Amino acid sequence: MTRLFVLLILFVTSCNTIARIGYGAKKQKTESPETIKAWLAKQGLHSDQLFSIAPENYLEYTIGTQSSPLLFDLKSGNFLALGYTNGKYCPKDIDKSYANVLPYPLLKVKPDSFLVSESLETPAGYTGKDKLRHHTDTTVFTLEKIRGLIRTLNGEPVTKMAGGEADYILILPFAIYLGNRIQAKDLKKYYYSALSNRFSKILVAFLNVDKQQWWGDQWNRTNTINY
User: Which of 144, 178, 146 is nearest to 12 (CA)?
Assistant: First the structure.
C-alpha cells in the first residue's frame, strides 16, 4: 500500500520536475468541496467523479510539480502503463496518449499493469563503477487498491467507481496550490484527449491532493509541504 500511495501524490511531468516559479505554485491552503469544484469549473474541467486523498502518510512522500494520469480498465481493474518510462510519465505525444486506445479486450498487446523503476546504487564504502548495484523496483497497480486509498470530497469511503458503459477510468491528480500555468494546461490535454477517443469510452475522474477541510485541524497542521 505504501508504494501505491507514492504514485498518487508524486508529481512528475515529461520525466523532469519543474521549478515552483514555473508552475505558479502557491502556499498550501485547506480546500473545501466548493473551492475544489470552483477551480475545476474555472479551467473548463467537469466530472461527477471527484475524489480526495486520505491524510494518513501524506508527508512521507515528496511532491514535485505536476500530476501523472492513471488509466484503468473498469472491467478487470487493470492499470494501463501507457506513456510511462522507468516509473515516470514521459509521453512522446501527450495529446494522443488516450485518444486512440482501444477497449481492453481488443488490445492485441496488453500494456504493462505495473511500473518498473531501475536505478544504480553504490554500496557503502565504494565509489568505483564496478561496485554499482543494479536495483529494480516494481509497483503493481489495480483499481481496487487505488479505490481503498481515496475518499470523496467529504471524506467518505469510495465504495464503487461508477463507470456505467465506460471502458476505462482516467484518474487525473491535481493540486490547487500548484497553480494554473502548466498544471491546468496538461490537465486539459489529458481530459480532452480521453473524451475525443472514438474507439473507447473513457470516464474521467479528478483526484485532489490539496489539504482537505474534512481532515480536521490536527491533520491540516501536520500535513504541510514546504518548498
Answer: 178
